[in-house]
Amino acid sequence: MTKLIAFRIAQAIPVMFVVAVLTFLLMHLLPGDPATIIAGDAADQESIAQIRRDLGLDQPVPVQLWLWITNLAQGDFGRSLMLNQPVAEAVMQRLPVTLSLAFVAFVITIPVGIALGVIAAVWRDTWVDSAVMILALVGVSVPNFWIAILSVILFSVTLGWLPSAGYVPLHDSFSGWLASLLQPAVVLALFQIGYLARMTRSAMLEVLDQDYIRTARAKGVTPMRTILKHAFRNSLMQVVTVSGYILSLLIGGSVVIEQIFAMPGIGRLLVQAIMARDYPVVQGTMLLLGFAFVFINIVIDIVYAWVDPRVRYD
Asked: I want to staple 197 with a disulfide (CB 3.0 to 4.6 A). Which of 59, 76, 117, 287 is the partner?
């Protein structure tokens, strides 16, 4: 297991370097000049040129990239152009919001998605299976921003059950924290529930057709015990792998949801930074998201090796 962890960390280092380079280059391909945006429409060319020199934007792109990579190696993510504060500080202030949203959505997704997939597999080729797969297809196909708008109209405006926007920190009020997260988390989880239900159904059907399942049934093992102890446990490997992928998608998908529900998280910060051409914030945020994806994949590999004793990385 130690060799596995060391090997995966060694693999992650060049991946993060590539992510950093691509993030830097993609930002410079966007139209618009940050110096012009900061100076305003009424600024003259001399003022814009001075801002560009102060920010180092007058340097060639390779020089800017080298300086940014050098600063990253020292733990310096730069300073936000629109917030006038260090990027690391701005991200850390908003990180709890995004993590809370992803956590609540993940807690909703896993049990509901797995339960629907198991139900569809057990009652395959029946109306129950068809109904679950139709619900999964709707969850996967319908845009979450459209569902979010309808949800706000119904549950916030019409019924008044849940707040339509904002975020309440956990240390202020648990009930307020949960109420502010419940609606956006459910909307964010709908797509992943449909995806997980389809994957769980596929994995369960593959296991249910194995010889040892038929042997268990022939020996008189109860259907519930056969499904839970034998079929579900052996299909758990695919579910674990998909769960890590889902967590990554939930963190990345928070960008749209945070913008709709006006949640002060990393996703909304990223959108605002892109609109303002705030290069340091966009680059730092994208690098953080890339690190999160790599870290989740490492954890999933470790869990995969722990759950299945047949897997040997050493």
From this structure: 117
Range of the domain at 63: 2-73
Q: In this structure, are 67 and 131 located in the same domain?
A: no
Give yes or no: residues 59 and 98 share one domain: no
The model's pTM: 0.78
Q: How confident is the model at residue 210 (pLDDT cuts 50, 70, 90)?
A: confident
Domain count of the chain?
Answer: 2
Is there a single domain that holds both residue 186 and residue 255? yes
Decide if 312 is inside a domain.
no
Residue 11 lies in a domain: yes
Residue 163 shares a structural domain with residue 40: no
Q: DSSP string covering the chain, please? A: -HHHHHHHHHHHHHHHHHHHHHHHHHHHHSSS-HHHHHH-TT--HHHHHHHHHHHTTTS-HHHHHHHHHHHHHTT---B-TTT-SBHHHHHHHHHHHHHHHHHHHHHHHHHHHHHHHHHHHHTTTSHHHHHHHHHHHHHHHS-HHHHHHHHIIIIIIIS--S-SS----TTT-HHHHHHHHHHHHHHHHHHHHHHHHHHHHHHHHHHHTSHHHHHHHHTT--HHHIIIIIIIHHHHHHHHHHHHHHHHHHHHHHHHHHHHTT--SHHHHHHHHHHTT-HHHHHHHHHHHHHHHHHHHHHHHHHHHHH-TT----
